[in-house]
Structure formats: structure tokens, C-alpha cells
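ENTRY TYPE: paired fold submission
RECORD: A
CONTENT: sequence, then C-alpha cells
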Amino acid sequence: MYRYDEFDHSLVKERVEQFRRQVARRLAGDITEDEFKPIRLMNGLYLQLHAYMLRVAVPYGTLSSKQLRKLAEIARKYDRGYGHFTTRQNLQYNWPALKDVPAILDELASVEMHCIQTSGNCIRNVTSDQYAGAAKDEVEDPRIISEVIRQWSTFHPEFSFLPRKFKIAVSATEEDRAAIKVHDIGIQVVRNDKGEIGYQIYVGGGLGRTPMIGKKIGDFVPKADLLAYLEAVMRVYNMNGRRDNLYKSRIKILVHEIGAEEMQRQVEEEFAEIRKTGALNLPQDELDRIEAYFADPAFEDLSDDDADLDAAIAADKGFAHWVTNNTAAHKKPGYAIVNISLKPIGGTPGDCSADQMDAVAGLAEKYSFDELRVTHEQNLTLAHVRKGDLKAVYDALKAADLATANVNLITDQIACPGLDYCNLANARSIPIAQEISNRFADMERQHDIGELKINTSGCINACGHHHVGHIGILGVDKKGVEYYQVTLGGSADENTAIGDILGPAFTEQDLPNAIEKIVKIYLDTRQDGERFIDTYRRVGIQPFKENVYEAH
């Protein structure tokens, strides 16, 4: 993991003290809420439907046990005993009091964390693959360049007041677990024929009101030139992005309006000018310094076969399900990647209690080299667990009510906080996710259905990524009544797709039955080995449209 240097420590502490003074001014009435708003947003503090919400940055989704324990402590001391993990690999507190926020920021700083640039029209938290450093087919640990980008973008004077918020994601495997093509900039780490590492650059992806898939404008940007290339993209956007229309301010609209080829031409022109100065050439010694923080832990030389594990799987059906669904192959023999579902049956997707955070921190410390990850699908990951320890990890997770064996199944849903918390939402998301979860609770049934991703958003801003769910659910308001529009065929992986609207929206009461029908049509139509998304791509939307609305 990256560790703060003296500059990082002083920078974060200074920001805490600055904000402490601004909060004191607001509480004293010296500044109005309107005057305070841009100040609090630059420190990750939102004013939502019922209370303030504080968003904590988790750079590229990596946490230490110490940091997670601190997040748990803050949840107990200053909130209501839980936190909410988001699709940007961050953590949100939903109920902090304004007077306590400076103290929270001070506590975060004590474990090398902050809330800087988790809001506002700036470059937000850089996200990446939760399997970074553990994936078998990885070109290079994507967290290395993610950390470089974090340092370059934090307090960048030219990009602190962009036309709109800006999101960057990095992936280093053929299987995209970072959803790079639905980001403002998506970066794919690649290796050329000479064995050199470089980057494919996608620009103009994003969801929200106008969902779009990013366009590739860079085939192979050399490692030393990456920051110069990113700077060129940002300058073109900053100069040409719409500031007169909130709905047309994202870079995806610029790319759409001028075209990918023209965007590429302007970026290349700006890139050539930046390269002339050499100021943004990435020094190899600095890369080496950062890379050293992400060196492999002290793996043991183990056999990939484990007779005790095989026996435990045979003896315990629940454990067998968990191993099948919640673990993934590791690059090192004898190790596995463990995914911890934050989607218990009937629970709130992404919520994690303080006690559960402490439990996961203990497991990471004991079994995963003191490190864990947050996924963009609102789960947690222990990246390096010995196969021989899987049963002990499972038993501990079960005791903490964290052993739900549903990763990538129909109850492993993404959902935004919706109208229960958010003042932008048109409808509730959490009760919808809970109802679907309860409806499909039976594990045998979930296994029969197989991989199926349901994403729910409470409004068009798409914080629940509904556009790229295999089944997407969007809450809409119809004359004060909550309705839900369904899309099918979305995907956030390497085969990114925006879902197709099924038809008229459903009431809250009718929606679960509609989901049941969609699943039944899939089961009746699928061929051997087909996932839901495979069947949908083969047969299209028409069979679903014809059957789902049959009784309406």
C-alpha cells in the first residue's frame, strides 16, 4: 500500500485546519449556507434529504486494517454505527453532525485518509480493479499508475473548477472489473510487441441522464507520457466543455458533439505541445518509488491442491456455495481471492456495520497481509488468502453475518441510497433491492439462475449504475407516485453495453413480479451454459417485452 510522505501529511492536516475554521464560521452564522456550500463540497460534505453526508476517499479501493478500524470507530462515535460503501470504492457516512466533521477529518488524517476531491467539479477518486496485484492475467498492478494519477490530480490548480465532476478508472486485465468504458477517462494497461507497458485511453464514457460508452482515442501511450496525455485530455475538456448547461457539461457530451476523431486530434495537438516542455515526463525513479509500495507480500510457496479444503467443501454445503461464488483464482499457487458480500438477504446493498468493519479488519490482518479492497459493486475483497485458511475465514465471516454466498448472483445487487437519503432522488432504491433479494433468497434457485446483475438507481443521475445492469431499474416520479423503469442487456465489463428500455414503467407493487417474469423467460429460453446476458444478446428484447407485459 502507498504510505503518506511528509508532504502528504502536511497537506491533509492543513486542509483539516482550514475546514475547521470554515465550519466554525458557518456555525456562528458568519457565512450563509449558500456561501458555505462550495467550501463543504470541496471537502466531501453534502447536505442530503435529512442530514449531512460525508464521503471518505478510498484511493483505488485499497484499505489497511488500521484504516478500516478507524472507519468503524468514526461510525460508532460520530454516526449511527455503520457506513455505506459506494460504486466509487468510497465510504459514506449518512448522519454526521456539522460540528463533528472537522474532528472526523482529523481522525481520518491520523490513518492517512481524507475527503478531499470526493465532491465538486474536480477529478474525483481514481478507481481500479479490486483484484489488483492478485489477478492471474494482470499486465501490471494498476494501483501503481492510479497512485501516480492521484498525486498529479490532487489540488491540480488548472483542474479544480472543471465544467463538471470528472472520474477516472484503471484496469490491467482483459476482464474489466473497473468499468473503465463508463468513465470520463478509462485507462487500460497493455503491453506492446516489444514487451513495453503502455496505456489505451478511452474518453467520454459515463452514465447519468445521457449514458455513453467511452471512445478509444489512444492506442498505446508510453508509460513516461501518461500524465502529459491525461493533461492534454483535461485541457481540451476544460477549454471546450459546456459551462452554460449543467446537462451538457460532461466530457461525454463534448466527445459526442465534436466526434471521437476530432477529440483525438485536439488531444494529440495539445499533447505535442505539453511534451515539448518535458515537464510532465514521468521520472523512472519516481515510478520505482511508488511501485515499491505495491510489491507482492511475502507469499509462501504452496501447492494449489489442498486436501483439507476439499474435505471441508464436501462436508459443508454452505461453505461449498461460498467457495464457488465468493472466491476467485489467485496468481500465486495455494492462494485465493476472497470476496465478501455486503448484500445479505433483505439487507441494504453496500452497508456495513462498525462491528462488521472491525471483523473484516481482523480477518485482513490475520489472513490477507493486512490489506483489503472495496469493489465498485459495493462489496469487499481480501486479495491474498491461503487456501488452507478459507474455512477459518468463512467461519469468521459467518459469525459476523458476512458470509452470504451470492457474489455475481441475482441478490448481489448494486443500489444507490435513493429517496431514503438523497434529495435528488425521485424514488426509493433500497426497499426495491430488499424486496428482490427476499424474493430470490433461496440459494439453490440463485445458483440455477446463475450470473445476473441487477442495478437500481433512484433517479436519472444513475448512482446505482442502472444503465449497465443486466437488469437495470430506474426510479421515476409520475405525479407524486414512484414508478420503476426497467432496462435489459446492460453490462459494465469488457463488453460494455447500455441497457435497452423494456417498456412502460412499473409500480412498486408490480415490479417484483416483472422481475420474476424476466427471469422465467430467460430460464425458459437459455441454452446450455448461457448466462442471462448471453441469452439476451442472442434473442434480443422482443421475447421479454411480449411476455412481461402480457397481463398488463
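RECORD: B
CONTENT: sequence, then C-alpha cells
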Amino acid sequence: MTAFFSAAPSYCGRFGVAVLLVVLADFLFYGQPAGITAFLFAILIAAAVVAVHPTAFSDIRVWLKPAALLVALLPLAENVSLLSVSIALAALVVFALSLSGRLRHGMARIAGQIALFGLAAPFRFVSDFIRWRKTARRFGGRRVRLAAIAVWVMPLTLGAVFLALFGAANPVIDYWLSLIDLMKLLDLIQLARIAFWLFALAGVWAFLRPRLPRFSRRGPRPTHALAAAAINPQSHIIEDIVFGKAAILRALIVFNVLFALQTGLDATYLWGGAALPDGLSYAAYAHRGAYPLVVTALLAAGFVLAALRPGSETSGDPVIRRLVYAWVAQNIMLVISSILRLDLYVGIYALTYWRIAAFVWMGLVAAGLALIIARIALGKSNEWLSSANLLTLSLTLYACCFINFAATIANYNVDHSFEMTGQGIPLDAWYLRSIGPGAFPALDRFFDHQGKTAEAGAARELVRLRGIDEGWYRTVQANWRAWSFRDWRLLAYLDSKGSLVLPQPSQPSLPGR
């Protein structure tokens, strides 16, 4: 009974912190643009997590965790995007689990914990509330509920008294109190707003009470396995033949020959510049092969991991190991060839978000294949390989948060357009307009160039829409909540650029003048 009463204020205290965070979330986000407020709110959540875990300060290295968290939150200050928000949420999960002493070491285990946390987070508050109610009933629910309410009576009562006294003594506070309109406050209670509050409460509560779902462990069922073996004793023999050492050796020989053929074709047509068969263009050759080759490399990686399991008979065979090294090396060449194919295609048909994502994805596949070679050569486990790949993926996504892909796409497409170079395809300026304000500088360079040519009339409508877009963008950025470091740099450019005006077409002279 005593233990529960000591725990009840902790629950109520966390609930009070959660309510305060929900109020701040309503002020920062509801009906407002997202910008620097996402970074500030993430810091507030981190501070709340520290406040509800005071025992974490007993660790002498406690300040390393906030420092690492701050580094992970920097992408939010650069720009608010799905990627930067995902990195921030993952970092907050790791931070909360670490302070609560529930974080398991190893990249693979941490990734699993993040996934479990995300699955359990929407239901954490409801499950904690139900558990608290059950515990309250067990220890005399009415008395416990009264005690939980009573602890707030004195603070709220005295707080109201002090607020009234401050209002009488301070005209500013008195003015603020006079602005409180209860009827207007009732108007704020809308169904959408209540849904936002509940969503925010569920989210912040998961960080204040970081717990992972518990799954019942099922014991091994040797009876079924023995029964299956007794029914069909030849199943193990067939498995050893189909997936045994001899089969893997033959498979690796065949795979190496096939991959060598593919690599030779790429070397001939892509790198050597040989003439393609009739009816096939370099663009079609590049586009048709880029993505299937990456899928091929992934399947090859899965085969290698299955064939060379640590401690298996095949993993210790020197011939198989050499064949695996050669095959993985060819897979890396295959991915590099896929990158060259995509680069050739982009050079003809311009750059898009999906094509940038393909470049990043192919680079990650190549890195993963290199790590497979390292795992085999160093004799590491599959868990080590998973952790190394997750670390590579995390660092890549973190770096991507600081790259302005909209500006990259716009600059590349403008610089390689037919209008600017006389080669390639015409610029799809409407697409550049659709990718957002990051394309403003590149579009301005394009308009400046168009203003010096006979094509000025074709760009005049786009210039008008570009001005409308800038006006909308400046309106959004006038709200301090929308600030980000990237937007600050763009606004500095727009202020220094001034308005863009294309020359008006000359009017023909009337007869007799």
C-alpha cells in the first residue's frame, strides 16, 4: 500500500508534465507552419525526459547523451522534413530508453527497440492508465484516487490566490487576466483540436514512460521436430543435397560466370562506347538495367549470407570463400554499373527526387556488399553485419538532412537544359516550380538567361507565378515558427536578389510614324 502511494505522485507528476507539453505543442504546431518549432519541441521533450529520470545523473558520462542527442537534432534546425523528423524521433527514443536504463547495446538491437517503441507508443498512455486504475482498485481505489486528487488541491488553490494577488499588484498581469474570455476558450474546443491533443498526449507520454512491449516467450517444441523427422527421415538428406556444400560450390561458379558476362557487356557498351544493336538507345539501355541490377545485387547478398553462415561447413572452405569474394566483388561492380547507367539516363532526361534516391540507394547497396566481404574476412557474425549496415544507413540519412535536394535538382536541370547549353532536353520549369522554394535561385538564373533571348515571352507566365510563390513563401516565413537555417539562407538570397522583371516585347511601329 505504501509503495503504491509513493508511486502515484510519480504517475500524476508525469501526467502533469505531459499536459504541459501538449499545451506547448498546441501553441507551436496547431494551425501553424512547421519550422524551428520542431527543433525546440524536441529539446523540450528531451528536457522533460531528463526531469522525470533524475537518477540518470548518477552516471558520470550523463552529459554525453544530451550532446549526442543535440547532434541528432541538428537536421531539424537545418530543415524540417520527413527524414529529419524521423531521425529526431529515433534519437529521442534512444535517449529516453538510455536514461531509463532499458537500452540494449548494438546497432541491430537498438534498431529493433526503436521499431518496438514505435509500435507500442500509440497505446502506451491507454495501457498505463488502465494499469494504474487496476492497481488503484487493488489497493483501495477510492482512497488512492482521492489521494491523487488531493495532492493537487493545495498547489492549485494557493496558485490561484497568488495569481489574484499578482493581478492586483501588477497591471500587466491584470491586463493579461482581463484578456481571458471563457466563452472564447470554449470555442477553441473543436473535434480536430481534441484529436490533436490526444495524438500529442500519446506521443509525449511514450517518451516520459519509455517502455517496450513484452512478448511471451514460447519454449522450443522438440516433440514436433522429432515427429517430423521420424515421419520423413529423408527430408534432412534432401536438404543437405539441395543446399549443401557441393550445391553452393556449383552455384557460385555459375553465378560468377553469369555476372562476369553482365559486367563484360557493361564494359563494352557503357564504358567502351561500342555501338548498340539497332533500335536500342543508350538511354533505354541505361534505364532498363539500373533497378533490376540493384535487385540482383540484393538477392546475391542474401544468398551469400545464407550460404556462409558463421560456423557452417561452407564458411570454412577456402575455395568457396574465394568464389564468394569474386562474386561479391562482381556485385559491387554491378552496382557501380547501375550508378553509371542511372547517371547516363539523368544526363539525357534530367534529375528528379526519385533518381537522387536511386543514387543514394545504390551507394548503400555497394557499401552493404563491401561489409559482407569484411564480415567473411574478419569472421564476424550476422549481428555485426546488421549493426554495421544500420550504422552506415543512419550516417547516410543524417547527412542527407543537410543537403538541399530541391536546389540540387533545380541547379542541375537548369545548367544542363537545352535553353542554357543548346544540348539535351528543354527545361521542365513547371516541375522545378512544383518542388518548392528551394528552386527559386535556379529558376531566377533561368529567367535571367531567358530575358536575354527571344524566348522571353515563353517564360513571362512563369515569372509571374514565381512572384506569387515568393509572396506566399514570405508570408509563411513571417511566422517565427516556420524559421529554419535553410529558409534563413534562402530569404537572405531573395532580399539581395530583388524583383525579377523580364523585358517587355517591343511594340511594332505604326504606319506613318
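NOTES ON RECORD B: The chain has 22 helices and no strands. The CA atoms of residues 238 and 375 lie 29 Å apart.
STATUS: closed
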